[in-house]
Amino acid sequence: MAWQVSVPELEDRLQCPICLEVFKEPMMLQCGHSYCKGCLVNLSHHLDSELRCPVCRQEVDSSSSPPNVSLARVIEALQLPGDPEPKVCQHHRNPLSLFCERDQELICGLCGLLGSHQHHRVTPVSTVYSRMKEELAALISDLKQEQKKVDEHIAKLVNNRTRIVNESDVFSWVIRREFQELHHLVDEEKARCLEGLEGHTRGLVASLDMQLEQAKGTQERLGQAERVLEQFSNESHYEFIRKYHSTASRLAKILEKKRRNRETRSQG
């Protein structure tokens, strides 16, 4: 008989309803629903009243719940050797398998069921990790686009500087040739014109040099930011999620500042 469910889909169906991780030492309640042994122990410990199944709300006795041996064997067959142990909640000692969207922090299943994160919108760690990776990829794409615009701006500044210097050389040659044909009485006027032209050229070149230096500084900072982000994208899942929002916020501010500066230059 052919299999109707793929391995990833089967793993999704083997998740504990409390921690949303693949069952660990699964125990079966009298109602037929299974949970991780640690999740049941912690749930019983934090409830003052009788224990009710979180799925069907039937009153159960966790002390008489047998291990679900068949389920444990299926999970053992699916597991790969060397799978890393997930980090655990310091309050409930359960895996940090969820992300609280409201408080922007990693939590365990009991935090969302019994703790301070009740009724908050939560997302599995694997899902939020994939989402944040996509958001980071979009930010890196924006950064590359901004880098391209800075490169084009630098090329334009360099071309303008070269053109102005070359035009200044041509005008200087024309002025010198014309004044050589004039009488000695116009020498002072010739000197004044040359001085004015050279001063104007120095002012333009100095202005362009300053803009060029600023643009190169921006180019270097954007390049450093891109390298930092590429290194950051290789962080572990937990470090990546923990640092993601502060890093993304700083990058968004840099990009927004660049856009405003560019718009200011365009209006000017």
From TrEMBL:
UniProt keyword list: Coiled coil, Metal-binding, Zinc, Zinc-finger
Query: Which regions form coiled coils?
Result: 129-160
One short Pfam family name for this protein?
zf-RING_UBOX
Which residue numbers delimit the RING-type domain? Answer: 16-57
Give the InterPro entries listed for this entry.
TRIM/RBCC, Znf-RING_euk, Znf_B-box, Znf_RING, Znf_RING/FYVE/PHD, Znf_RING_CS
- The reply on keyword Plastid is no
Keyword Zinc-finger (UniProt): yes
Which SUPFAM superfamilies does the protein's record reference?
B-box zinc-binding domain, RING/U-box
The record places domain B box-type at 84-125
PANTHER family referenced in this protein's UniProt entry, alphabetically: E3 UBIQUITIN-PROTEIN LIGASE TRIM
Instruction: Please report the name of this protein according to its UniProt entry.
Output: Tripartite motif containing 50
The record lists the organism as Felis catus
